[in-house]
Structure formats: C-alpha cells, structure tokens
Amino acid sequence: MGTDTSFSIVGCATQNGVTGLKPAHGSLPGKGIIPISHTLDSAGPLTRDAADAWMLYSSMRASPLPPALPADPRTLRLAVNIAGRDQVSDSQLARYETLFQRLRGAGVRLTEVLHPPIPYMGDLMRCEFRHDLEAYLRDGGRAETLRDIVAYYEAHPEPMMAYGNAVLRAALGASGNLDDPPYRAALAERDKWRRRMREACRDYDACVMTGPTEIPAFHRPALDGPAPVHDGERAAPRRDPVWRGRGAPHLGGADYRELLRPGRLSGW
C-alpha cells in the first residue's frame, strides 16, 4: 500500500515494472494518512498486475466491486496524450513505443491527443499544503510548524532534500486560507478542465499519459456531480474514459494483456 498526492504511486509503479493504482479521490477513507492536499491525497495498492490491484482496491472499499475481466483488444480505443513528451527520456519513450506497437498488433486503436499541463495546480497545492499540514500539526498537539519542517529538511540536506522540500518551501509563501482568490480561482479552473477533458475523451476507453502532466484531480461521483460510469459501479450506455492522469483511478506498469473491460477497471 502507498499514498499518492502527485504521482507517488503511479510514478513508482511505472519505473519499477509493477502496477500502481491511485483510486478516485474520496473513494477510500483518508483516516491514517498524513494530510498534505485534501483534494489530491489518496491511498492505493502497488501489486504485480492490474487484476491484483483491482482485487485489493475492491477489498479496501466499504462495498466490493464486480470482478475485473479481460477485454478483447480489438474493441478498445486508447487516446495517447503526447503533452510533455519532450521532457521524457529516450529510454522511457522507447518503452512506450514498444507497448504501443504490441497494442496495435493486438488490434487496439490508438489516437494521439494533446492535453497540455494547466498552470493552476501550483496555486492549489501550495495553499492546501500550507493549510492541511499546519492544521494536522496544530490539531495533533505538536509544537512544530511547516516552517520548522522546512528548516529541518534544510539542516539535513542529504537524507531529506530529495523529498518534496521545494514544494513545502513554496507553500510557506501561501496564506493557507482556503478563501483566498488564487485558490478559489484554481479550483474553478480545475473544474472547467475536468469537464473539458471528460468530453474530449468520452469516446475512448483510456487516456495514456506519455509525459509530465497536471491533469486535474477527478473526484468520486458522490463528491462531484453526476456519477461517471468509469467508477465501475453502474452500467454504461457508452464507453467512458479510463484515466491514468492525476486523481482518477489510474495505474502504471501494467502489461497490455491486462487491459480490462471498460467500466470495470478505471485505469491500466
């Protein structure tokens, strides 16, 4: 098990040849997780393959999900987001191309799309980091503040500086007030892009990210308006997108043979 605020589960899985699942935000309780960003944090499994990840995720939920079943590759349509591809190493791009060739050979239809990063996630994360971490420290009766944590990291650079200190330092410049105009504007912009991306990918079974992205977080149906079919809990009149972007259920490192039926596994 791991936690993911910004690519921690999926990034590790992708680099290590296993499957990582970040469920839709809010689909699992956050109790026991140190809060960093309350609209992004989520627990999730890291497993051998997609089927195991789905089984473990189902067992973590209050109500289990239906079994994930293999899909006929010839019925699948995948969108490949090429945004940020210039920031990816040649070796990583070669792995992607090997996968895509195998998918095409199996009959999967692939279409390139361009969903570029959005510039508002930084404002959202800085404000939530400041607000959520300060509240966690204060409510737990600890004397430390976020500034104390940053100071400790800087005093111990070799073991600590690799773990997000730049983001924590940036959060010190935010007020942590969830009513601040930049934060509210970031939330509104994320909602707008969420709707736009759902519409753009509505005819695909999955959207594969091939570069760094700031895809907005997607919330579970109970928290975010009409229930999307891709949460796997109701029948779909059409195929809905399966997201590997930040926030929705998404996996890294799965083999193409683990592609599962649309509406059953919300990522691959």
Architecture blueprint of SSEs:
Elements: E1 2-4, H1 8-16, E2 19-22, E3 42-44, E4 46-47, H2 50-60, E5 77-81, H3 90-105, E6 109-113, H4 121-139, H5 146-155, H6 157-160, H7 165-171, H8 181-200, E7 206-209, E8 250-252
Parallel strand pairs: 5-6, 5-7
Antiparallel strand pairs: 1-3, 2-4, 2-8
Helix pairs in contact: 4-7, 4-8
Give a quick precis of the structure.
The protein is α/β, with parallel strands linked by helices and 268 residues long. 36% of the residues lie in helices and 11% in strands. The two termini are 17 Å apart.
Provide structural commentary.
The chain is an alpha/beta fold and 268 residues long. It is built from eight helices and eight strands, in the order βαβββαβαβαααααββ. The strands form three sheets. Strands 4-2-8 form a three-stranded antiparallel sheet. A three-stranded parallel sheet has the order 6-5-7, covered by helices on one side. Strands 1-3 form a two-stranded antiparallel sheet. α3 links the parallel β5 (77-81) and β6. The longest helix has 20 residues, at 181-200. Residues 215-268 have low confidence and may be disordered.
